[in-house]
């Protein structure tokens, strides 16, 4: 098992945001995470990356307990995420944004990092924009850069947080193609997404969160057909 969460709990005051969540992700799989706003999806990523410490429970990578491991060390161990709202270094170029991630996130030497970052730029469709400043990009390219920065750390486990949100359907389709390529290259993916048809084009399994609890999990299309899941998404295009 690549990643395991066991009875993980996180509360902010009286608000229990992650309520005894257990989760397993096998090497090479693509898992989708859905749930309404405020269900605790992003907090789950913060717990996995180490940005937030759980109140209880355990997190394991390759069977090794990483619950107390600092975030920077987890990144070097191969866990990296993209954020829902991209915040690139706006005064650095696209290429420099990636170099920072590779050198500081993954501790690569500069020559190795430069070669790898060129590969990532090609994979994410950013090669022609390598010398643009991060602050000058369109939303689609910011989203691509957000994913590229995470990829630059050469993750074994890539966590994508609503990467398709706000894109046109053609842009979304192109992004899905890129994510499929990344997955086919052997990277394990956990993807939080509200655009369910995009998610279903990539993931084999789905986990559903509601009020911090896991309410369903299993083969993606079966899970999406469950009455309790459809209830939660009533009005959303599932
Ligand atoms: N640092 C914090 N302090 C207090 N409350 C927080 C904090 N972080 C998250 N929360 C609350 O925890 C709940 C879950 O937030 P979270 O961002 O994990 O949900 P989400 O499922 O990702 O939602 P969305 O789909 O809107 O992104 C929300 O009610 C949020 O306001």
From TrEMBL:
Signal peptide: none annotated. Pfam families: ABC_tran. Residues 3-236 form the ABC transporter domain. Keywords: ATP-binding, Nucleotide-binding, Transport. The keyword Membrane does not apply. CDD domains: ABC_Mj1267_LivG_branched (cd03219). InterPro entries: AAA+_ATPase, ABC_AA/LPS_Transport, ABC_transporter-like_ATP-bd, P-loop_NTPase. It comes from the Bacteria. The keyword ATP-binding applies. One of its GO terms (molecular function) is ATP binding. This is Branched-chain amino acid transport system ATP-binding protein. It comes from Labrys wisconsinensis.
